[in-house]
Amino acid sequence: MISFNLNQDEKKIPSNPGIYLMKDKTGKIIYIGKAKNLKNRIKSYCSLNSENNLKFKEKNFWKTRVLIKKVNDIEYILTDNEIEAFLLESNLIKKYRPIFNIELKDQQRYTYLKVTDEKFPRLLVARRNRNGNFQGPGGDIYGPFVYGSSRFLSIGLLRKIFKVRICNRLPKTPCLEYFIHNCDAPCIKKINEDEYLKNIKKLKEILSEKNGLENFISNLKIEMNIESKKQNYERAKEIRDTIKTIESLLIHQKMDLKSRSNEEYIGTKIDTLSGVSHILIFKRINGVISDQKKYEYELVGDNNFSTFLLQYYTTAAQIPHKIYVNEIPVSKKILELALKKLSNHNVSIIKVTDSSNNEKKDLMNLILKNLSIQVERKYNQSVIELKNILNLKEFPFIIDSFDISNFGITYAVGACVRFVNGYPYKSGYRKFRIRNSKSKQDDYSMIKEIVDRKYSFNKIAEEDDEINNKNNNNNNNSNTFKMDNSFPNLIVIDGGKGQLGSAQFVLKKKGLNIPVISIAKENEEIYTSCSADPLQISKKNPALHLLQFVRDEAHRFGLAYNIKLRAINKN
After folding, report:
1. Longest Cα pair distance anywhere in the chain, in angstroms?
2. Fold match between domain 262-376 and domain 382-570
């Protein structure tokens, strides 16, 4: 493992594939990522303060910057290829559980077993604490085991076969387990320590060896024949019954797995506003949906759909032969090879498209419909209506509205108000004293000026530092950081087509692809870049009510500033 300080020469970083580990000032690992080219990836983090990155070159840039602000040191580990990088990243995330990485909350199909290191060991289900360490007494850990694995029998059956005690402390008198022949009662010395540990050794062989259970059955058959020849028929019958129990369970599991038309449908929907990706998984066996799971993860650094899939299939589920998705994950071929290495069978990741059969399309559409409902629940109804009416790609969660307030050339001011989820967000309000319109009253040039000043790189950088310092004193509230400092999802200009064109000119010049509309007060007509004709919205529609509220608030704020300046000058 090689350490690289962010302030060092970037040329020292190799261009190999590998893993990088980001650490904070205390040395704690807060993020782990993989890279095909370590040098390029780490350089991209080091240059996140550039103007190009501010212009939405990277999705959810604000969350990644929150991460970078906390990074004091980066270590990296070289790997021979991308597949090894994929698998090593997954293992290290499970080991260190960094706060910025994807962590699956639902692990009910993912189990470890523990054989304790006590004088008379017990067999337990091993559970992790928040730091990733196994709780309870020390011992040897086996797993993970997933449902359907022929090596994962019920813990109760394993205890019964090997006569493993279940008591927390050895009692002074035998319990019920002894009388129903599930335990040999080491508590009253019905079995000595050496004999007990022989059974434990056999148990460990089953849990650790690839063919441990099959070998155990073979040895049992040999032992049964020996006991039968010695005419110990009761013991021979007991061994025969154990063999039958294990074999019937194995046959049932093998038939079950063989008969399954095992496939999973995984839909993903990114909510770019909150920086979260939502996942819904349907498991289908023999044409019937047998299970569904919901997940979500933060879009920070390299957290993406591909990373999620690898974490999911190494911690929470069996790996099916076919995985149907609505979006092809990055590095699809590498991911398929990594899953093949884990499962010992070919894995195909297939995108459901319009050319897919109706059954698959219907199922994926059902998943996406559920995801849309899940995302929309957090948004104000007026915000949802506005997105649909304006045909926006994302919800107008953050809206900036601009207005000019004139009283001759001397008292020309501009105002920008910010609304978040349909409500005023007053720490995002900005006011401007017009600088450039000295000779005439020109609303168009004034709109250009205040839009340019609001979204200038230097201005945003200054506010970024100011807000980050404020947040550092308030438990690093990243939501406040985003609400104050992000570009909006929609810009509303008070005026007609001329004012709209002025704002669009500035945004295009800056390379900002932000939807912008204008609203004319006389007939409440909405002008957009999509049509030469204005858009009319029903007066009863909550979307129009929101636009009116936003426009009127910008007018009120600008007028208040204008009146204040005149009052100061008058005095």
Report:
1. 118
2. yes
CATH of domain 2-96: 3.40.1440.10
Q: Which pair of structure tokens corresponds to residue 106?
A: 């639902």
Residue 439: burial class (beta carbons within 10 Å; 0-12, 13-18, 19+): exposed
Of the options 3.30.420.340, 3.40.50.300, 3.40.50.1100, 3.40.50.11540, the CATH number for the domain spanning 382-570: 3.30.420.340
d(CA 466, CA 468): 6
3-state secondary structure of 240: helix
**CA dist 236 to 202, 220, 242, 493, Å?**
18, 10, 10, 89
Please, are residues 20 and 36 in contact by the beta-carbon 8 Å criterion? no
Query: Is 0.85 topped by the overall pTM?
Result: no
User: Under CATH, domain 262-376 is a member of which superfamily?
Assistant: Ribonuclease H-like superfamily/Ribonuclease H (3.30.420.10)
The pLDDT value recorded for residue 109 is 47
Domain boundaries, the chain: 2-96, 262-376, 382-570
| pLDDT at 251 (0 to 100) | 54
Of the candidates 522, 546, 542, 545, the residue with the CA atom closest to the CA atom of residue 534: 522
What pLDDT digit, counting tens, does each position of 98-117 carry?
988 887 654 444 567 889 99
